[in-house]
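Technical annex B. To support the medicinal chemistry partners, we prepared a structural model of the target in complex with iron/sulfur cluster, based solely on the information shown next.
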Amino acid sequence: MGEIMKSCGSGAAWGEMLDGSVNASNRAETWQDRAKCKGASASVFYPLRGVPTASARALCKDCPVKPDCLSYALEHEEEFGIWGGLSERERRKLIRAQARLRSAGERRLFEAS
Ligand code: SF4
């Protein structure tokens, strides 16, 4: 097999597609099927430290499943790579911001009760 392809989203679904164990016409379409990066080289989305991520971000910019991709990465705590147009550092920052908002909301609810 050639170069490793991006396996964003459901690794199982992509693995099954690659090894032929699932007939693509017999399964429901997933967001990964509509990903702009489908078939792209993994090295674009998992660059070595210091390597620019502009080409990955350019693909993500108008990807039709960008929200699904980012949600997946956040739910599965993906530590590496570009997902939904965000780097691991940007995703960690987003998670911290969400936690602060949740905490502030809970504090306001507590104070109002
Ligand atoms: S947002 Fe980016 S990484 Fe996610 S599916 Fe689209 S092109 Fe791929």
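Notes passed to the chemistry partners:
Confidence is low (pLDDT under 50) at residues 1-5, 9-22.
The two ends are 61 Å apart (CA to CA).
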